[in-house]
Amino acid sequence: MKKELRIFFTAMMFLTRLPVPRFTDHSPDYLEKSVKYFPLIGYMVAAISGLTFLIFNKYISEDIAIAASIIAGILTTGAFHEDGFADVCDAFGGGWTKEKILMIMKDSRLGSYGVIGMLSILFCKFLLLKELPKFTPDLQAPSINIFYNYRYFLLTLLAAHAISRLMPVLVMRFYDYVTDPDSSKSKPVATRKPTVPVLLIPIITALLPFAFMSWHFLLAIVPVVYVAFSLAKYFKKWIGGYTGDCLGAIQQVSELCFYLSMIIIWRYVI
Questions:
Q1: In this predicted model, what pLDDT tens digit does every residue of 31-90 receive, in sequence order?
Q2: How far is CA 88 from CA 36, 91, 183, 239, in A?
């Protein structure tokens, strides 16, 4: 049990800026095994973002609440995934060879493609999150329990952050890691592919929110998987596999794809 706690806190330290116990370190062994808790960390980020939304929505406005929830998520993770997405935009936008792409991706400076990509994904995330409360049936007859009124919205947040963090783990299982491993912060996570038994834990964890929703919402997972593996295939074509930044980009795009899929299901299926 103590070992599993250390592995969990290692995942928490790797993916977020939340405080962890002092006994948590950067042990390569624990970091390698921490991938099974990535969706669980997603729940934590979603919980912080959802609570922020509820507070600001109650006392200010819905738009401000959505913006605040996005900022809360970014502060929680330290823009870990957003930074990866921006680096991918710069690298694949400005590089035409594997060597050039990897070189740009390692550059800490942010270029035009990265800025445009970052602004675009945040803008899309805001618009998609703005649509979600409109399709929450409970708002037609709200109760005094705000968590009950927004339970579908909150469940969607939980599912989105969990599923989107599951996608990089799946990509790690089926694709190869590329770049200089000695200088990469993702080396311990990516040096060994997750085994099938290890994959079962994050898969089951990521699917838990769907137990409290209509089965129709499971359909949202299909386009997310397709988009995630399409990106992985694109990365393999150009650089022979994935990097840590590529995994961050997959997480961000998967999250947006999940929100869009949920909205479509709400509007046209349910």
A1: 888 999 999 999 999 999 999 999 999 899 999 999 999 999 999 999 999 999 999 999
A2: 24, 5, 17, 12
Four-residue CA torsion sign, 64, 67, 70, 73: negative
The amino acid occupying position 15 is: L
C-alpha to C-alpha distance for 183 and 244, rounded to whole angstroms: 11
Residue 196: in which H helix or E strand, if any?
helix 196-207
Neighbours of 91 (CB within 10 A): 26
Q: Which of 91, 241, 105 is nearest to 177 (CA)?
A: 241
Residue 141's region, left for phi above 0, alpha for psi from -120 to 50, else beta, is beta
pTM score: 0.92
Burial (Cβ within 10 Å: 0-12, 13-18, ≥19) of residue 229: middle
For the chain, what is the total number of helices (H) and then of strands (E)?
13, 0
Q: What are the backbone angles phi and psi of residue 92, rounded to the nearest 5°?
A: -80, -20
End-to-end CA distance of the chain: 42
Residue 48 identity (one-letter amino acid)? I
Q: Give one DSSP letter per residue of 203-269, joined into a string.
A: HHHHHGGGGGS-GGGGGGHHHHHHHHHHHHHHHHHHHSSB-HHHHHHHHHHHHHHHHHHHHHHHHHT
Residues in the chain: 270
Calculate the alpha carbon distances from 107 to 58, 234, 245 in Å.
42, 21, 12
